[in-house]
Amino acid sequence: MENIYIDKKMCSGCSACKDICPFGAIEMREDEEGFSYPYILQDKCKNCGKCVKLCAFKRENIDHAKLPRDILGVKIKDIDERKSSRSGGMFIAIANYILKENGVVYGCILGDNLEVYHTRAITKQDVNKFKGSKYVKSNLKEVYREVKEDLNNGKKVLFSGTSCEIAGLKTILKNENTENLYTCDIICHGVPSPLIYKKYIDFMEEKENDKIIHVDFRDKSFGWSTHKETLTFQNKKLSTNYFTELFYSHHILRPSCFNCSFSNMDRISDITIGDFWGIQEENYEFYDEDGVSLVLVNTEKGETIVENIKDEIDFIKVFDNYKQHNLRAPSVQPENREEFWNDYRENNFEFIMKKYAKYEEQSLEMV
Ligand SMILES: Cc1cc2nc3c(=O)[nH]c(=O)nc-3n(C[C@H](O)[C@H](O)[C@H](O)COP(=O)(O)OP(=O)(O)OC[C@H]3O[C@@H](n4cnc5c(N)ncnc54)[C@H](O)[C@@H]3O)c2cc1C
């Protein structure tokens, strides 16, 4: 087999091809931008073509006119849960319900070593670690295999992540009984490079001569609608916007994000969640600076979830009147993306920080 994808814009790195290869002939390897791609081990490959045929990124017959069964504005009633969630706490409301049913929840955490990855949780304490947006491409590790095992053992499973990650999971589970699987995707602007994130952490540690022990990519204590990140060092806490600048500049997003086949209303999950920007215009009474989730209920299973959590949430029904670019189209690739990566290869990281993250133009604030 030559390759699974034609160019990098055609691979989200979901790693489903690695798991479905009957010959163990695929490995995920990082490229120079720090994103993982499938690599074919020629000595093991038997050219069966399963990886190409089942590639989760390829979607045919997307229905751009499709509408969800319901569109909701949601706020979890428990204010502590809401304050510790990114938007209105819809994710944790669903996760709490799955835990109550003795189920298993999968989601994205920031590990002790600050790595962003997906993992399995069966306790409230561990599920809480999924709360909050980590603006980095998550490493899926072995979670697809673990989900399959849980489903085979009759467990109820909630899988949360980006649409492309859920598409990968569904590919793996094509011939399995998925009656007990519930999926929840986030509206996604695109996923930044884990390599640049790591370089950023190293840079800030060196500059501050202190070790970072936690990153809050969007610290809600500044308010739901503001975007400020907080770096907790061993000896201090600083707030800045450097990584946020890199994120919104789009230079560090994965190439496939500019060609995302999931940035439309034909959703792949049971429930889609995001920030309900523009809620003030939709329903001023429901606006709240502690956060409001926009929730698309896409399937019958999604409706069952809402029915089961309705005592835990305040919600309003809305119509197609929300501001979300990535429900209509992928994020736009910056014209100078190549210049960024050339600069990265040819200069030290301080150069990148000054040119692209406004380092030194912005001041660090002690929190
Ligand atoms: C890369 C990225 C891009 C985003 N882009 C948008 C956007 O364009 N518009 C918008 O409205 N909102 C965006 N969000 C925010 C997202 O919509 C919120 O996570 C969502 O509103 C959930 O809020 P909540 O209060 O229900 O959940 P929270 O309790 O905050 O739940 C967080 C959920 O996000 C998942 N998650 C966190 N980080 C990642 C990650 N790196 N990869 C995969 N899953 C992750 C967790 O598994 C969990 O399910 C983005 C988040 C990320 C991580």
Structure, described:
The chain contains 13 helices and 14 strands. The chain has 367 residues and is an alpha+beta fold. The protein folds into 3 domains: 8-53, Alpha-Beta Plaits, CATH 3.30.70; 70-191 and 254-327, 3-Layer(aba) Sandwich (Aspartate Aminotransferase, domain 2); 194-252 and 335-366, no CATH class. The strands form 3 sheets. Strands 5-4-6-7-11-12-3-13 form an 8-stranded mixed β-sheet, sandwiched between helices. A 4-stranded antiparallel β-sheet has the order 8-9-10-14. Strands 1-2 form a two-stranded antiparallel ribbon. It starts with 15 loop residues before the first helix and ends with a strand. 41% of the residues are buried. Flavin-adenine dinucleotide (FAD) binds next to α4, β4, β6 and β11.
Write the layout of secondary structure elements.
Elements: H1 16-20, E1 26-30, E2 36-40, H2 50-53, E3 70-76, H3 79-83, H4 90-100, E4 104-110, E5 116-121, H5 124-127, H6 143-152, E6 157-161, H7 163-172, E7 181-186, H8 194-208, E8 212-216, E9 229-233, E10 237-240, H9 242-249, E11 271-275, H10 279-282, E12 293-297, H11 300-309, E13 313-317, H12 337-346, H13 349-356, E14 365-366
Parallel strand pairs: 4-6, 6-7, 7-11
Antiparallel strand pairs: 1-2, 3-12, 3-13, 4-5, 8-9, 9-10, 10-14, 11-12
The structure holds flavin-adenine dinucleotide.
